[in-house]
Target: Membrane protein
Amino acid sequence: MNPAFWGALATNLAVSAGTALLVLLVTFAVASLRQLHRLVDIAWGIAFTAVATVTYVMSAGYGEDGRRLVVAAATTVWGLRLSAHIAHRSRGHGEDARYTALLDKAPGNRTWYALRTVYLLQAALVWLISLPLHTASYSTEPLGALAVCGILLWALGLGFETVGDHQLARFKADPANRARIMDRGLWAWTRHPNYFGDALIWWGLYLLACTSWPAAVATLISPVTMTLLLTIGSGKRLLEKHMAHRLGYAEYAARTSGFLPLPPRRTTSRHRS
Model:
Protein backbone atom coordinates (compact mmCIF):
# COMPACT_ATOMS: atom_id res chain seq x y z
CA MET A 1 0.00 0.00 0.00
CA ASN A 2 1.28 3.44 -0.91
CA PRO A 3 1.89 6.28 1.57
CA ALA A 4 -1.22 8.11 0.34
CA PHE A 5 -3.38 5.20 1.58
CA TRP A 6 -1.89 5.26 5.05
CA GLY A 7 -2.14 9.03 5.18
CA ALA A 8 -5.83 8.89 4.23
CA LEU A 9 -6.54 6.23 6.85
CA ALA A 10 -4.67 8.17 9.54
CA THR A 11 -6.58 11.33 8.65
CA ASN A 12 -9.87 9.42 8.80
CA LEU A 13 -8.98 8.08 12.26
CA ALA A 14 -8.24 11.59 13.48
CA VAL A 15 -11.42 13.07 11.99
CA SER A 16 -13.47 10.20 13.44
CA ALA A 17 -12.04 10.89 16.88
CA GLY A 18 -13.04 14.54 16.50
CA THR A 19 -16.50 13.53 15.28
CA ALA A 20 -17.14 11.27 18.27
CA LEU A 21 -15.86 13.98 20.61
CA LEU A 22 -18.09 16.63 19.00
CA VAL A 23 -21.23 14.51 19.35
CA LEU A 24 -20.51 13.81 23.03
CA LEU A 25 -19.57 17.43 23.81
CA VAL A 26 -22.80 18.70 22.26
CA THR A 27 -24.68 16.10 24.28
CA PHE A 28 -22.81 17.20 27.41
CA ALA A 29 -23.83 20.82 26.86
CA VAL A 30 -27.51 19.94 26.35
CA ALA A 31 -27.57 17.45 29.23
CA SER A 32 -25.92 19.95 31.59
CA LEU A 33 -28.46 22.63 30.73
CA ARG A 34 -31.32 20.21 31.30
CA GLN A 35 -29.65 18.46 34.26
CA LEU A 36 -30.42 15.17 32.54
CA HIS A 37 -27.31 13.12 31.87
CA ARG A 38 -29.26 10.10 30.71
CA LEU A 39 -29.25 11.85 27.31
CA VAL A 40 -25.78 10.41 26.81
CA ASP A 41 -27.37 6.99 26.29
CA ILE A 42 -29.23 8.39 23.26
CA ALA A 43 -26.02 9.94 21.92
CA TRP A 44 -24.17 6.58 22.02
CA GLY A 45 -25.78 5.21 18.85
CA ILE A 46 -25.75 8.63 17.17
CA ALA A 47 -22.00 8.95 17.72
CA PHE A 48 -21.33 5.61 16.02
CA THR A 49 -23.59 6.62 13.14
CA ALA A 50 -21.70 9.90 12.73
CA VAL A 51 -18.35 8.09 12.72
CA ALA A 52 -19.62 5.55 10.17
CA THR A 53 -20.90 8.34 7.91
CA VAL A 54 -17.63 10.27 8.06
CA THR A 55 -15.66 7.10 7.36
CA TYR A 56 -17.86 6.17 4.39
CA VAL A 57 -17.34 9.61 2.82
CA MET A 58 -13.61 9.81 3.51
CA SER A 59 -12.84 6.26 2.32
CA ALA A 60 -14.29 6.88 -1.16
CA GLY A 61 -11.68 6.00 -3.75
CA TYR A 62 -9.66 3.88 -1.32
CA GLY A 63 -11.81 0.94 -0.19
CA GLU A 64 -14.01 -1.50 -2.07
CA ASP A 65 -17.40 0.17 -2.53
CA GLY A 66 -19.55 -2.83 -1.59
CA ARG A 67 -17.78 -3.35 1.73
CA ARG A 68 -17.81 0.38 2.48
CA LEU A 69 -21.56 0.59 1.90
CA VAL A 70 -22.37 -2.52 3.94
CA VAL A 71 -20.31 -1.34 6.92
CA ALA A 72 -21.77 2.17 6.88
CA ALA A 73 -25.35 0.95 6.45
CA ALA A 74 -25.06 -1.76 9.12
CA THR A 75 -23.63 0.67 11.67
CA THR A 76 -26.19 3.36 10.85
CA VAL A 77 -29.18 1.02 11.09
CA TRP A 78 -27.96 -0.30 14.45
CA GLY A 79 -27.02 3.13 15.84
CA LEU A 80 -30.18 4.98 14.86
CA ARG A 81 -32.48 2.14 15.95
CA LEU A 82 -30.77 2.02 19.34
CA SER A 83 -30.90 5.79 19.84
CA ALA A 84 -34.55 5.98 18.78
CA HIS A 85 -35.47 3.11 21.11
CA ILE A 86 -33.71 4.66 24.11
CA ALA A 87 -35.21 8.09 23.37
CA HIS A 88 -38.72 6.62 23.23
CA ARG A 89 -38.17 4.49 26.33
CA SER A 90 -36.87 7.38 28.44
CA ARG A 91 -39.40 9.97 27.31
CA GLY A 92 -41.01 11.66 30.29
CA HIS A 93 -38.61 10.11 32.81
CA GLY A 94 -36.17 11.91 35.06
CA GLU A 95 -32.51 11.21 35.62
CA ASP A 96 -31.25 7.64 35.40
CA ALA A 97 -30.35 6.19 38.82
CA ARG A 98 -26.94 5.12 37.47
CA TYR A 99 -25.90 8.70 36.75
CA THR A 100 -27.36 9.99 40.00
CA ALA A 101 -25.27 7.46 41.93
CA LEU A 102 -22.17 8.28 39.88
CA LEU A 103 -22.44 12.03 40.35
CA ASP A 104 -23.13 11.65 44.07
CA LYS A 105 -19.56 10.33 44.28
CA ALA A 106 -18.09 13.39 42.56
CA PRO A 107 -15.10 14.67 44.57
CA GLY A 108 -15.61 18.22 43.31
CA ASN A 109 -17.71 19.98 40.70
CA ARG A 110 -20.39 17.51 39.52
CA THR A 111 -20.58 18.96 36.00
CA TRP A 112 -16.90 18.62 35.20
CA TYR A 113 -16.80 15.24 36.89
CA ALA A 114 -19.58 14.09 34.55
CA LEU A 115 -17.62 15.44 31.56
CA ARG A 116 -14.51 13.46 32.49
CA THR A 117 -16.03 10.20 33.65
CA VAL A 118 -18.96 9.89 31.24
CA TYR A 119 -18.72 12.00 28.09
CA LEU A 120 -15.00 12.02 27.35
CA LEU A 121 -14.79 8.34 28.25
CA GLN A 122 -17.66 7.48 25.92
CA ALA A 123 -16.12 9.51 23.09
CA ALA A 124 -12.91 7.51 23.48
CA LEU A 125 -14.84 4.23 23.56
CA VAL A 126 -16.80 5.13 20.42
CA TRP A 127 -13.53 5.75 18.58
CA LEU A 128 -11.90 2.57 19.87
CA ILE A 129 -14.87 0.32 19.16
CA SER A 130 -15.23 1.85 15.68
CA LEU A 131 -11.82 0.60 14.53
CA PRO A 132 -13.31 -2.24 12.40
CA LEU A 133 -15.37 0.35 10.51
CA HIS A 134 -12.20 2.12 9.37
CA THR A 135 -10.27 -1.03 8.56
CA ALA A 136 -13.13 -2.53 6.57
CA SER A 137 -13.87 0.72 4.73
CA TYR A 138 -10.28 1.03 3.50
CA SER A 139 -9.98 -2.60 2.46
CA THR A 140 -9.80 -3.26 -1.28
CA GLU A 141 -10.93 -6.87 -0.87
CA PRO A 142 -14.37 -7.70 -2.38
CA LEU A 143 -17.02 -9.17 -0.10
CA GLY A 144 -16.38 -12.88 0.45
CA ALA A 145 -17.54 -15.77 2.62
CA LEU A 146 -16.22 -14.26 5.87
CA ALA A 147 -17.98 -10.98 5.12
CA VAL A 148 -21.23 -12.84 4.49
CA CYS A 149 -20.82 -14.56 7.88
CA GLY A 150 -20.31 -11.12 9.42
CA ILE A 151 -23.49 -9.79 7.81
CA LEU A 152 -25.49 -12.81 9.00
CA LEU A 153 -24.11 -12.43 12.53
CA TRP A 154 -24.97 -8.73 12.47
CA ALA A 155 -28.51 -9.55 11.29
CA LEU A 156 -28.96 -12.15 14.03
CA GLY A 157 -27.76 -9.66 16.63
CA LEU A 158 -30.07 -6.93 15.36
CA GLY A 159 -32.96 -9.39 15.45
CA PHE A 160 -32.21 -10.41 19.03
CA GLU A 161 -31.88 -6.81 20.15
CA THR A 162 -34.99 -5.57 18.35
CA VAL A 163 -37.26 -8.47 19.32
CA GLY A 164 -36.02 -8.39 22.91
CA ASP A 165 -36.68 -4.66 23.22
CA HIS A 166 -40.13 -5.03 21.64
CA GLN A 167 -41.10 -7.90 23.93
CA LEU A 168 -40.01 -5.98 27.02
CA ALA A 169 -41.83 -2.81 25.93
CA ARG A 170 -45.07 -4.75 25.40
CA PHE A 171 -44.67 -6.46 28.77
CA LYS A 172 -44.16 -3.16 30.60
CA ALA A 173 -47.10 -1.54 28.81
CA ASP A 174 -49.52 -4.03 30.40
CA PRO A 175 -50.59 -2.73 33.85
CA ALA A 176 -51.06 -6.34 35.00
CA ASN A 177 -47.27 -6.79 34.82
CA ARG A 178 -46.40 -3.80 36.97
CA ALA A 179 -44.76 -5.78 39.78
CA ARG A 180 -43.67 -8.79 37.72
CA ILE A 181 -40.32 -9.81 36.24
CA MET A 182 -40.18 -10.19 32.47
CA ASP A 183 -39.44 -13.88 31.82
CA ARG A 184 -41.15 -14.54 28.50
CA GLY A 185 -40.03 -14.89 24.90
CA LEU A 186 -36.30 -14.29 24.47
CA TRP A 187 -36.15 -13.20 28.11
CA ALA A 188 -36.82 -16.80 29.14
CA TRP A 189 -33.57 -17.85 27.41
CA THR A 190 -31.30 -15.00 28.46
CA ARG A 191 -31.67 -12.22 31.01
CA HIS A 192 -30.22 -9.78 28.47
CA PRO A 193 -31.26 -10.49 24.86
CA ASN A 194 -30.65 -6.85 23.93
CA TYR A 195 -27.07 -6.89 25.27
CA PHE A 196 -26.41 -10.27 23.66
CA GLY A 197 -27.68 -8.87 20.36
CA ASP A 198 -25.38 -5.86 20.71
CA ALA A 199 -22.39 -8.14 21.16
CA LEU A 200 -23.28 -10.17 18.06
CA ILE A 201 -23.59 -6.99 16.01
CA TRP A 202 -20.06 -5.90 16.80
CA TRP A 203 -18.58 -9.35 16.27
CA GLY A 204 -20.32 -9.29 12.89
CA LEU A 205 -18.82 -5.91 12.02
CA TYR A 206 -15.46 -7.23 13.17
CA LEU A 207 -15.68 -10.09 10.66
CA LEU A 208 -16.24 -7.53 7.91
CA ALA A 209 -12.88 -6.01 8.86
CA CYS A 210 -11.02 -9.33 8.86
CA THR A 211 -9.60 -9.04 5.35
CA SER A 212 -6.06 -9.88 6.51
CA TRP A 213 -4.32 -11.20 9.62
CA PRO A 214 -2.93 -7.76 10.59
CA ALA A 215 -6.41 -6.24 10.26
CA ALA A 216 -7.97 -9.04 12.31
CA VAL A 217 -5.43 -8.64 15.10
CA ALA A 218 -5.50 -4.83 15.10
CA THR A 219 -9.28 -4.59 15.38
CA LEU A 220 -9.98 -7.49 17.75
CA ILE A 221 -10.01 -5.01 20.63
CA SER A 222 -13.28 -3.57 19.30
CA PRO A 223 -15.69 -6.52 19.80
CA VAL A 224 -13.82 -7.61 22.92
CA THR A 225 -14.24 -4.15 24.48
CA MET A 226 -17.92 -3.98 23.53
CA THR A 227 -18.58 -7.45 24.94
CA LEU A 228 -16.82 -6.58 28.20
CA LEU A 229 -18.79 -3.34 28.49
CA LEU A 230 -22.03 -5.25 28.02
CA THR A 231 -21.21 -8.02 30.50
CA ILE A 232 -18.97 -6.68 33.27
CA GLY A 233 -18.96 -2.95 32.54
CA SER A 234 -21.91 -0.58 32.49
CA GLY A 235 -24.41 -3.05 31.04
CA LYS A 236 -25.37 -6.36 32.59
CA ARG A 237 -23.54 -5.89 35.89
CA LEU A 238 -25.09 -2.55 36.81
CA LEU A 239 -28.57 -3.50 35.63
CA GLU A 240 -28.57 -6.71 37.66
CA LYS A 241 -27.32 -4.83 40.72
CA HIS A 242 -30.28 -2.48 40.30
CA MET A 243 -32.73 -5.36 39.78
CA ALA A 244 -31.45 -7.57 42.61
CA HIS A 245 -33.97 -6.21 45.14
CA ARG A 246 -36.99 -6.87 42.91
CA LEU A 247 -39.36 -9.57 44.12
CA GLY A 248 -38.86 -12.73 42.08
CA TYR A 249 -35.65 -11.64 40.39
CA ALA A 250 -33.43 -14.09 42.28
CA GLU A 251 -35.63 -16.99 41.15
CA TYR A 252 -35.60 -15.65 37.58
CA ALA A 253 -31.81 -15.37 37.61
CA ALA A 254 -31.50 -18.92 38.97
CA ARG A 255 -33.33 -20.44 36.00
CA THR A 256 -32.26 -18.07 33.20
CA SER A 257 -28.88 -17.76 31.48
CA GLY A 258 -27.06 -14.53 32.28
CA PHE A 259 -25.98 -13.74 28.72
CA LEU A 260 -25.78 -16.54 26.14
CA PRO A 261 -29.27 -17.80 25.16
CA LEU A 262 -29.82 -21.22 26.72
CA PRO A 263 -32.92 -23.29 27.55
CA PRO A 264 -34.35 -22.28 30.95
CA ARG A 265 -33.00 -24.34 33.81
CA ARG A 266 -35.34 -26.32 36.02
CA THR A 267 -35.28 -25.12 39.59
CA THR A 268 -36.34 -27.01 42.67
CA SER A 269 -38.51 -25.17 45.14
CA ARG A 270 -36.84 -24.73 48.50
CA HIS A 271 -40.17 -25.66 50.15
CA ARG A 272 -40.42 -28.98 48.39
CA SER A 273 -40.35 -31.96 50.73
Q: What stands out?
A: Residues 181 and 246 are 8 Å apart (CA to CA). Residues 144-262 form one domain. DSSP finds twelve helices and no strands in the chain. Confidence is low (pLDDT under 50) at residues 269-273.
